[in-house]
Task: structure prediction
Amino acid sequence: MGEPERTAVFVARGLTKDYGQGPTAVHALRGVDLDIYPGEFIVLLGASGSGKSTLLNILGGLDSATAGVARWREHELTRAGDAELTRYRREHVGFVFQFYNLIPSLTARENVALVTDLADNPMSPQQALELVGLGQRLDHFISQLSGGEQQRVAIARAIAKRPDVLLCDEPTGALDCATGILVLQAIEKVNRELGTTAVVITNNVPIGQMADRVLRLADGRIAQTTVNTHKQEAATLSW
Result:
C-alpha cells in the first residue's frame, strides 16, 4: 500500500511578473510552475536577477503577478485584494530578510513581543528566543548583540506567531560563513521541530545540502530541481 498523496500548500501555475512595458520591460518571472508541500525545506538558488526574490515576494503576498496563478491552500493570492493579503501575511507567514529591521532601543525580548502582542496564539518571546539559541540574551539590547544574534532575533520574531510558512530572503547575506551557519541552524531547527514550511533564498550553493529540494532559477524560470534524498543538517555544512 503506497503513501497517501500529499496536498501542496503552495501552488503556482504560469506565474509571470513583468516590470515596465514594451522593449524596456524586465521579465522577472516567465511562466513558473511550482508546488511546495507541508513541512518542506526549499532552497532557491540563482544569480542576482534570476527571479528568486520576486517569486518569494509573490508567495508571501508582498508583490502581485502580471499573469498566472499563485495559491496558498484555499487562498488565491493572485486575485486577493490588499485586505485579504494583509490578513494572509499576518496569520500565515513569517518573513526574514537580509537586514534585520529590529528596533535598537528595545531588548531582544521586547522586539519579539512586538509581534506576539498582535498574534492570536503566539509562543512567548522567551520560548521563541530559546528556540533559536538566545535564551541567555533575552534582555540584551540589540546594540549589544552580534550580527548573527540579531538575525536570530529576527527569526524568533518571525516564528513567534507560529506561522505556517517561513520565507527567508538571503538571511545570511550580511554575515560571515561561521555566523551564517548558526543562523541556518536556527532556521533548520524551526523547520524540523515546528514543522514550519521554509523557503530560503541564497546564493550559497552548499546551503542546499540541508534542503528537501533545491530549485535553481535562471532568467525568470526554474532551470533545475534537485531532490535531496539524504538531508544534511546545517551544523555539518562547510562553506
In short: The domain at 38-66+83-236 is CATH 3.40.50.300 (Rossmann fold). The chain has a mean pLDDT of 89. Helices lie at 52-59, 82-92, 108-116, 125-131, 147-159, 177-194. The longest helix spans residues 177-194.
